[in-house]
From TrEMBL, chains A, B, C, D:
Domain of life: Bacteria
Name this polypeptide is given: GntR family transcriptional regulator
UniProt organism field: Heliomicrobium undosum
Name of a matching Pfam family: GntR
Alphabetized UniProt keyword annotations: DNA-binding, Transcription, Transcription regulation
Endpoints of the signal sequence: none
Domain HTH gntR-type: residue ranges: 9-77
Length: 124, 124, 124, 124
DNA sequence: GTGGTCTAGACCACA
DNA sequence: GTGGTCTAGACCACC
C-alpha cells in the first residue's frame, strides 16, 4: 500500500479506497484482522490520526468492524452484497462517461466506438 | 445554466465545466461573446469573483480570450483540437472505469457486459 | 501599422509605441503631419476614442503637437534629444536584464556570454 | 521580502516573482517548506487572498506544491530545468532589447556598444 | 495549525 | 459599459 502526499485526494481517502479494493478483490477475507492503526501509520509514513479517520470511514460504510482492545476486522458481509458493490464501483465511472457524452451531444454509437478502441488498446 | 450550491464541486468549477461543454458541443461558436462577468454573476445569484475565477480558468486552458473593456470571447480553435478534447472528455471516465475494474480483479469481458447493460438501460 | 486586440498591452499603448518608433526611426520627420484621428481609427478598425488617447499620450510626452483644426504634427525636436531617447529605449530592457541577472545571483560574465550567444543567433 | 503598493505591478505578481527568484537562486531548496499563507500575508501587511493567489500561480507553473493541511513546499525539480529557467529569465529582456533596437533601425554593433557601456557602469 | 472556497463591496484601467 | 485588482472576514476540509 502506498500514498501520494501531493495528490489532491485526501490521504485518508487514499487509504480507505485501497483497503476497500482489497476487500472487494477478496484479498482481505471477512473476519480477517486489519493491520493496527499505529502499525499502518508507521508503514505509510503518515499520522495515526489519518489512519484512524480512514478506518472510521470504513466502519461507517460497514466494511470493517472495530472491537475494542482487539483491533479492526473485515466485516462479515454476504457475498451478494460484495458483488453488487464491485459492480457499482465500475458502473459509476461508466455512467459518468455516458452522462458526459450526452452533455456533449455525442451519440451512443460514438461512445460505443470509443469504448471498443479503449478495450483494444488494453488487450495489446 | 444552473448551479448546485450544495454540490461538493466548487461553484467556479461548475461554471467552468458548463461553459466548456457548451463550447465543445458547438453551442458557443469561436469568436462569440460570452455573457459579461457581472451579468452572469447576477443571473446565477453568485458573486462576481466566482464567475471571474471560472473565466480565468477557461482562459488558462485556452478556451476563451478576454479583452479588457470589451468582454470575453470564445477562442478561435482548430476544429481538430475541439474534436480531440471532446473525445478525451468521455475517454477519461472510461479509462477510470477500466482501471477500477483491473484493481478489483475484474475481467475485461465482465466490464464489457456491464457497459452493454448500461447502454440498454439508456435506450429505454 | 497593425494592432493585436488580444494582447495584454492596451490598444492605445500599441498605437503610441508604433508612432513613437516611427519618429525615432526617422520615418516620420519633425513637422510632418500625422494621419487624422478618424482616418487612423478606421484604418486600424478601432474606435476614435482609442486613437485620441494615443495621440494625447504622445503630446504629453512632447513627441507630437496638436494644432486645432489642422491636425497633429511631429514635434520639432533637437536631434540630440531624439538620439538620447533612441538609446534609452534599448538601454531600458538591457538594464532590466542585468537587474534580473543580479537577482538570480548570476555573474556579469555569464550575462556577457548569454548576450554573445543571442547576437550570434541574430546574425544567422 | 518587501512589496511596493504603489508599483503598477500587482501585489500577487510581486510575491510570485520574488519567490520564484529565490527558488532559481537556490535560496529555497526543493522540498523546503514555504511560509504559510497566513503568516506571509501578515508579514507583508497584505491580505491572505493576495498571497494565496501568488502561491496558486507558482503551483500552476510547477514551482511549488501544496499539500492540504500541511502547507506549501518547493517542488522537486531537475537541476537542468532550473538552469534553463534561470537563463530564460535573463534572455527574455535581452531579446526584447534586440527587438527594440531592430524596430528603431539600430545596428547590432550599436547595441553591442550600449551593452558594453552598461557593463562598465556596473563594474564601477 | 494548514489550505480551499465563497461573499460583498470597493477602486482602477480600458474601450 | 467592460475586465483587473485588492480588502476583510467567513466557513469548511484536511492533518
Amino acid at each position: 500500500m502506498t500514498l501520494s502526499p501531493t495528490s489532491p485526494i485526501p490521504l485518508y481517502d487514499q487509504i480507505t479506497k485501497q483497503i476497500k479494493d482489497a476487500i472487494l478483490r477478496g484479498d482481505l477475507a471477512p473476519g480477517q484482522a486489519l493491520p493496527s492503526i499505529r502499525q499502518l501509520a508507521q508503514e505509510l509514513g503518515t499520522s495515526v490520526i489519518t489512519v484512524k479517520r480512514a478506518y472510521l470511514e470504513l466502519e461507517r460504510e460497514g466494511m470493517i468492524l472495530t472491537r475494542q482492545g482487539l483491533g479492526c476486522f473485515v466485516a462479515p458481509v454476504e457475498k451478494g452484497h460484495l458483488e453488487t458493490t464491485r459492480r457499482e464501483s465500475v458502473l459509476a465511472p461508466l455512467r459518468q462517461a455516458l452522462a458526459e457524452a450526452k452533455r456533449l451531444g455525442m451519440t451512443m454509437e460514438e461512445v460505443r466506438q470509443l469504448f471498443a478502441e479503449l478495450l483494444k488498446e488494453e488487450e495489446r
